[in-house]
Design goal:
mainly beta
Length: about 600
């Protein structure tokens, strides 16, 4: 379950293509509150447990979400000190996508107020591509990994799907996709405001990664964008923003820029006090003519050269020449965290795989990848490793910390770019082989110990665990909860929100919230402590959103945008025209206008 975003601009030059967002689409339905109670799952006691998983259930997690909903659920067992909103992004529309990474992004939100109430809503991100295809009723864009088109049919103009991550910083909610610019969202109704250039920081052709990092010590939001070019090298630009989402240097928002030789695919970054960290795996771009002619999707044009090493780039945040350290050949989609130890060495925790693969290279691109892929045979075996790199000598050490198949690692956000002990990840059902994620693991990166919990049934699959600090938390590694959605085949595929204690993962969920609807398999998310709009505020925001969606189609069926005529008037005033009282979440709030 991974994502690749950068796109080919020509046979040799790859560039990210951006698209503007537009609000349209089906209205949300409001439901009455109900009770949700369910017995806790059983506990998996050890790493070597080998449990079955249902391949058909996994395939069914890639169906289009049938509707957009907004409703309230009462659930027993929800902790009183779990207060905030859980957001998750992921592909939600597969009408024209044959690969998960090509699906249109859908945001899911659950607000937990500490009273046993869960306010659920979901909504597709209104990107330019999504809106135009919904209105046309047909596929208009080529996918990065499926449905290739020749260049004369728009094959080099894939859409910004905004489907990979959702982040909160400086009072703003953003949907991210690494091949283009972010989309600004309303945190209450999930309405799409617009594709944003972040106050003039990003040009239309710039990319902004879906994996930013937070420097909690300095209160900074750090991210990167990259443009691979096999001819001139891959350019990687780094950005830093203050706690109000303003660039540290308005005149020069790019804090550092490097050029990697040849083609590079850089999905994630790590951060320490002094370094930006990215890994360059030994990938090559081949088959440019196939991509131009539309005979092969872009994602099938990459090859992994296992005869060459991978390289870890330590890029000084304060400026200066990067330090490049050759390490063993591997590919990594995700880092857990990084920090500098007392000896000045960089400690990097990474999910490491022996090769790169996003589906069968020989598969028919017209067949959905979830139908053609043999998971246990074709998905690389990714496990948790710790690398210790010495910037002074250029040497490194490494050790495997957790040898069970896993991915989507997270730490307590309060430990981002700081020394951590515990990390959490999704783990597979099988021991020793890749398999669909059926559980959650807590990994002690210092001692090499771990504990896991697996869902009790083979047709119950989970996603990324998102760390939610306990209200009043002391900031320690495990003083909080883990939230994840479970696709529950025993309930006809409906989703269940699971809540686990971070310090007692093996005990299983302390609470389960059974939702009314099916949710596709997601990617990444975040928890925003203390953000708890009430049911009334959510209902009001949804009504205003739907009203604006109708009005925007009347004003301009193509270029309607929350930055255009009527948005500020409508959302800074109530439906009747009166001013909306403070606390009822009118948007955009004044500080957001700069984005």
């Amino acid at each position: 379950h991974y994502y690749l975003g950068m796109l080919v601009g020509s046979a040799l030059v790859l560039a990210a293509l951006a698209a503007a967002g537009r609000p349209t689409g089906p209205a949300s339905r409001l439901h009455r509150a109900r009770m949700s109670v369910r017995a806790q799952a059983t506990v998996a006691p050890a790493e070597d447990v080998d449990s079955p998983w249902d391949a058909q259930t996994w395939r069914e997690t890639y169906r289009t979400a049938p509707s957009e909903e907004s409703y309230t659920v009462q659930a027993e067992g929800l902790p009183e000190d779990l207060v905030g909103t859980f957001y998750r992004n992921g592909p939600g529309n597969f009408d024209y996508a044959k690969h998960p990474f090509d699906g249109d992004g859908m945001i899911v939100a659950v607000t937990l107020d500490g009273s046993g109430t869960a306010h659920f809503r979901n909504r597709f991100v209104r990107t330019k591509g999504y809106v135009l295809e919904q209105r046309a009723g047909k596929e208009l864009y080529s996918g990065s990994f499926s449905s290739p088109k020749p260049i004369w049919a728009g094959g080099l103009e894939p859409k910004n799907t905004a489907n990979t991550n959702v982040v909160w910083w400086g009072g703003r909610l953003l949907a991210l996709w690494e091949g283009g610019r972010p989309h600004l969202l309303d945190e209450v109704s999930l309405a799409t405001s617009r594709e944003t250039n972040l106050g003039g920081v990003l040009k239309a052709s710039d990319a902004f990664s879906a994996h930013p990092r937070m420097d909690v010590e300095r209160k900074r939001f750090v991210n990167f964008g990259y443009k691979p070019n096999p001819l001139t090298g891959t350019s990687v630009s780094f950005y830093e923003f203050n706690d109000d989402f303003r660039p540290l240097n308005v005149e020069r928002p790019v804090t550092q820029q490097i050029t990697m030789p040849g083609f590079a695919f850089v999905h994630d970054m790590a951060l320490t006090r002094n370094f930006y960290i990215v890994t360059q795996p030994p990938l090559q771009f081949e088959g440019a003519m196939d991509a131009l002619l539309g005979s092969k999707p872009l994602g099938s044009c990459f090859s992994f050269d296992d005869s060459k090493p991978s390289c870890v780039w330590l890029v000084p945040r304060a400026g200066g020449k990067p330090i490049v350290i050759e390490v063993d050949t591997h590919f990594s989609f995700h880092y857990a965290n990084a920090f500098e130890n007392d000896q000045g060495k960089v400690v990097l925790d990474v999910i490491r795989a022996p090769e790169f693969a996003v589906g069968s290279q020989d598969a028919d691109a017209s067949v959905p990848v979830w139908e053609s892929t043999d998971y246990e045979k074709e998905v690389p075996m990714s496990t948790y490793w710790r690398y210790t790199l010495d910037p002074r000598t250029g040497t490194h050490e490494k050790r495997e910390v957790f040898s069970r198949y896993c991915d989507f690692p997270v730490v307590n956000p309060a430990r981002s770019a700081q020394q951590h002990r515990y990390a959490y990840c999704a783990t597979g059902a099988r021991a020793g082989v890749p398999s669909a994620f059926r559980g959650v693991a807590r990994v002690d990166a210092e001692e090499g110990e771990h504990e896991i919990w697996l869902a009790p049934e083979a047709n119950q699959l989970v996603g990324e665990p998102v760390y939610a600090p306990r209200a009043g938390s002391d900031g320690s590694d495990d003083d909080g909860y883990l939230l994840t959605f479970m696709h529950d085949g025993s309930r006809d595929g409906k989703a269940t929100l699971l809540v686990l204690r971070a310090d007692a993962v093996a005990q299983g969920p302390v609470a389960q919230v059974e939702l009314d609807n099916y949710l596709p398999n997601g990617l990444h998310g975040t928890f925003v402590p203390g953000l708890t709009p009430t049911e009334e505020e959510i209902v009001q925001a949804t009504k205003l959103m739907n009203l604006y969606a109708r009005k925007s189609q009347e004003w301009n069926t193509v270029d309607g945008s929350f930055t255009g005529l009527g948005f500020k008037q409508l959302f800074q005033k109530g439906v009747t025209g009166g001013e909306v009282p403070a606390g009822n979440y009118p948007w955009p709030h004044a500080p957001r206008d700069a984005l």
